[in-house]
Amino acid sequence: MKKLALFGTATLALLTLVACSSGDSEKKISSEKALTEKKVESKKESSGWDASTKTFTNKDGILKIDKAEKSTNFDGKPALKVYFTLTNKRKEAQGAQILFQEMARVQQKQENTSNDLMYTMMPVNETGSPQEEDHLNNNINPNGTVSGFYPYVLENETDPIQILFQKDYQTVDKYEITLK
User: Fold this and answer.
1) Beta partners for 88?
2) Is the separation of the CB atoms in 81 and 119 below 8 Å?
3) Nearest-angstrom CA–CA distance, 128 and 137
4) What is the pLDDT of residue 6?
């Protein structure tokens, strides 16, 4: 009889614990959902992208997309050159290529996939020097600005390009370019 009473008391305590925990979990999930929804709304309001000037601003820098044009890489494959003007807003010098990558990702949007495009080498002249300086290896001083281009190998020559702008490695907006 004592065993049955002890079992009943333990079972009741367990059920009470589960019921209380369940309520707390529901409150926590509800609270997290509200927090997530607020974060999404605030990101939409202040993405940092200005389509009229083609400029993206975040705490690390200002990235202006000057233009994008099709080209061919050193291997003769189709390439895309994204021309930019980049300002470093950090307190220390930053490599242009790293800062660009932290602020933007470039993808080609196909029917079933959207894949990040890969960096490519561009043709060189007879002396082995680049035909055009990309300035990706420049270190940009605090509040300094550099203009250059980022070359990508294209997956094909027709599907649109998306530049995904990022804050703390999270996409907050995009700019789409149609290839002709």
Assistant:
1) 61
2) no
3) 17
4) 47
Tell which CATH classification among 2.60.40.1240, 1.10.150.530, 3.40.50.2300, 3.20.20.70 matches the domain 49-177. Answer: 2.60.40.1240
pLDDT tens for 5-43 read 444 545 444 444 444 444 554 444 444 444 444 444 444
3-state class of 19 per DSSP? helix
1 Cβ contact partners less than 8 Å away, ≥ 6 residues apart: none
The domain segmentation of the chain, as residue ranges, is 1-45, 49-177
Where on the phi/psi map is residue 65: left (φ > 0), alpha (ψ -120 to 50), or beta? beta
**What dihedral angle (degrees, nearest 10) is formed by the CA atoms of 57, 63, 69, 70?**
-90
Residue type, 134: D
- Quickly tell me which residue has 């940009």 as its tokens: 140
Task: Look at residue 36 in the predicted model and tell me its pLDDT.
Answer: 45
